[in-house]
Write a structure and sequence with these properties.
This protein is α/β, with parallel strands linked by helices and about 220 residues long. It contains eleven helices and six strands. The chain is about 45% helix and about 10% strand. Strands 3-2-1-4-5-6 form a six-stranded parallel β-sheet, sandwiched between helices.
Amino acid sequence: MTNPDAGAVLLDIDGTLVDSNFLHVHAWIQAFADAGHPVDAWRVHRRIGMGSGRLIAELLGDDADRLGDAVKQGHTDRYAELTDRLRAFDGARELVRALADRGAAVVLSTSAAPEEVERLRAVLDVDDVVQLTGAEDVDEAKPEPDLVQAALDLAGVPAGRAVFVGDSVWDVQAAARAGVTCVGVLSGGTSEAELREAGAVHVAEDAAALLRDLDAGPLAAVLRG
């Protein structure tokens, strides 16, 4: 049953709805290696979810100006080779549709590049029930609050009537800076302790767990309006 008084659920995509984080890690480490600046995979994973410009700057350091463009293009090329391995997490599509069915405004919010967003949209196949805001809509990517604020504006609700769902500390930090409650998921590879320390009010295993507990779990208050 729909509820016209329901608020908004803002959802990250990579690592939250789509199993893509470790594909990104692989693409990044290949790109760094190709540029002659190898980076350990764990260091890349720690930064998945922040904007690519910041990730590159942090991992290249003094070589960022010299190698940054090559690494960014290398990631784009390597990731494109892996997109046939993208898959929606179990329960992800069903979660999005259940939220919409209950009257929530559902907005997907991602730092992904436009060409990556198109692939993610095709994998999810929920365009008919969501709105989407991406990196091209804002000046600063996560952990800055711009993407979360853009999602709020698109949903047309104040921060107090929305919940953000994400898998990284950068998602949690961005939501906090926008004044939005954040629920974390473990599916991106970040621990519950780290997500809670960053400010997540609840941490679920994955999208399927949120779906199973939809009417009594951390998203219930938004759905009740």
